[in-house]
Amino acid sequence: MYFLHLFILALLALFSGIILVGISRKISARIHWRYGPPLLQPLIDVIKLFSQNSISHGFFFDFGIILTLVGSFILIFFIPVSNLYVMNSGGLIAVIYIMLLSPFGLAISAAAGANPNASIGITRKFLLSFAYEIPLLLILLSVMTHYNTISLVKIVDMQVDSGWSFGSGTLILSGISYLLILPAILGIRPFEVVNASQEISSGPLTEFGGKHLAFASIQHSLHTYAVLALFVDLFLGGSSLFGLLKPISSTIWGSLIGILVFLVKVAVLMIFCLFINAVFPRYRIDQAMKYIWKWPLLTAFVGLLIVSLLN
Amino acid sequence: MDRNQIGKWFKNPSKMANKYSLHAIYFCTGCGIIEIPPSITTRWDAERFGIIPVATPRQANLFMITGYVSTKTLKAIIRTYEQMPEPKYTVAFGSCPINGGMYYDSYNTIKCLDKFIPVDGYIAGCMPRPEAVFIGVTHLWKLIDMDKANGYKKYRENYPFYRANQEQLFGDLDWPPLFPKENTNG
Amino acid sequence: MDELIKKLQTDFDGLEISTLAKTRITISTKKESILLLLSYLKRMGYDHLAIISCNDWIKDNELELVYIVSHYLEKDYGPDSEIDKFNIIIKTRIPREKARFVTVLDVFENAEPYERELHEMFGIYFEGHPRLTLLMLERNYKIPPFRKDFNTKKYVDDLYGNIPTIEERKKGKK
Fold first, then answer.
1. pTM
2. CB pairs under 8 A between A and B
3. Which of the other chains make 3 or more beta carbon contacts under 8 angstroms with chain B?
4. ipTM of the complex
5. Would you kindly state where each structural domain of chain A is located, as residue ranges?
6. CATH number assigned to the domain covering B21-170
7. Per the CB < 8 Å rule, is B107 touching C165?
8. How far is B82 from chain A, CA to nearest CA, in Å?
9. Cys-Cys link to A113, which of A94, A207, A256, C4 (CB 3.0-4.6 A)?
C-alpha cells in the first residue's frame, strides 16, 4: 500500500509537472497570437537532453544537480493528493525545510562550474528565496494556528468538513498574501530574475548541458507542481468538491475523482499565474525584494494577527 | 508531418527527440541575423517547430551560421561549436559560406566554411525569408531521419585534418585540441 | 566664414583655401603646419574633430591625410533650418614609402581611434600615439589592405585557395 502510494504520487507529479509546463508554453503562445509548441514539448526536450553527451566539471557538479532533483522529489511525497500520502510526520515544518534543498544543490553545481554568470544567478536565487520565505513562514504559521495542527493530511481533512480555507473569514488574508507571492515562488514573470536568459545567459543553468539540464528541467516541473499543490491543499480544500465526495471518499472511485478534482484546481491556478506571466516584464532583484516585503508581508502579518486573536 | 508515428518514437526515441527539439544558440553574426528575430517571434513562430533560442552553447543543439564569416568571427565560431554537446547540427544561410558569395575577393572573409567546421546543410537566399528557414528545418529533419546529418561524427573522426586547416589559416591557436591525439605505436 | 578666411591667410603661409559651399571650405597645406593649424582652429571655436581620413595617390607616390573639423551648435536647429554647421576640410600630403606622421591627440583627444584605423589600414605610423594596435582587422598584412597596390584577388587565392578541403587533405595534399 505504501509503495503503491509512492509510485502513484511520483508518477502523478512527473506527469502533471510536464503537462503544466507544456500548458504554460502553449497558453503564453496563444496570448501572443501565435501557435505554440505541442503540449508534450517539455517531454520531448527532456528525452533529447538525456541523449546528449554532456560535459561534467567534476564530482560536485554532478552531486549538486542530483541534490536539487532529490530535494524537489522528496517535497512531492509530503503533499497529500486526495487520500494518497507517503509521509505524514513533520508536516508543514518539514515542507519548509525541504523547500530550501533545491537552491542549495543548485548553488553547489554553480560553484563547481565556476562561471561568473552562474554566480550572479545563484545570488539572485538566494536573495529571492530569502525574500519570499518571510511572508511564506507567516502564512504557514497562520494556517497551523487556525487548524491547531502541523499535519497537512489533517488540514485537508478539516477542510472537507468546514469548507475551504480561502472562503473562511479568518484565513482569507493569508490566502491573498500567498497568491501575491506565488509568482515569486514559481519563478515566473515578473519574478523571473533567476533564469533570465537575456541578461545573465540563463543564470545557474549556464554550464548545464545534456543530462544535467534534463535533471534541471525535471526539477523545474516538479517544483512548479509542488508549489501549486501546496496552495491547493492549504487553501483550496485539497481534493474536496464542496463535500460532495464524502460518501465515496474511501473507495477507489473516490480517490480517482479526487485526484481529478485536485488536478483541475492546480491547472486553474496555473492558468491564473500564466495570465500574469504573459504580460509582465521582469523586475530587478532589489525591486522584487521591495515588492515582496511591502504588501504581501503586511497582509500576511495582519492575517496572522487576525488568526491569533480569533483563536 | 509525421508526428503521429508512435512506432518510430518507441524504436528510436533519441533520434525523434533530437529532431523535434532543436535548441538554437543565439549566435548573431553576418547579414542574416536580421532574419532570426522575425523567425522566432510571433509572426513566423518557430516555437511550433520546437526551435527556441538558448543563451549558452552548452544547452544548444543547432548552430545557425547566418551569412558571411570573417576571420575574427571564425575563431569565435570554432570555440562555440566545440563547446556544444553532441549530437549537434550546423546550418548555413546564403551563398557566402559555400564559396565566398558576394565577398569572393575580400581579404577578410572565409571562402568555404566546410573546411573549418562541418556544415550539414545550406539554405538558399540572401538572406532567406523565415518561410525558407522553416523549409530548411524540415529538410534537416529528413536528413536526421536518414542518418545523413552526421557532421559532428565527421568532426570527431577527422579532427586532426580540421585542426590542421584551422592552424594553416590562423597560425597557432590559443586553445588546446578538442580531441587529443592518442599515442599510437609505430 | 569670410573673416576666418581672411585671418587664416594673414596668419599662415602657404595655405590654399577654396570655398566649396556657403558653409564648407577646403584648406590645403604643408604637413609641417597641421598641428598649429588645428590648434588655431580649435581656439577659434571649431572644437569638433569629425574624422581623419586618407586617400592614396599612387601615381604621385603620396598619401593624402584629410582632417574634417566642425563646431558644436548651441542647440539642434532641425533638418529644415537655414542654420548649418560650418565644416572645414584640411588636406596634407605625406610620402608613401615609410609613411610617418605626428599624432594630433594633444589637440583633439578623440583622434585616437581614427589614427589607429589609419595605421592598420594604410600603414601610417603616428608618432606619439599611445596604442597603435589592431582595431578591426585580425592580423597584420605585408601591404596594408587599403593601399592601391594591394591585390585582393591574388591575396585571396594565395591564402584561402591553398587550404584544402577535408577530403583532399585526407587523401594527401599533392
1. 0.88
2. 82
3. A, C
4. 0.89
5. 2-310
6. 3.40.50.12280
7. no
8. 11
9. A207
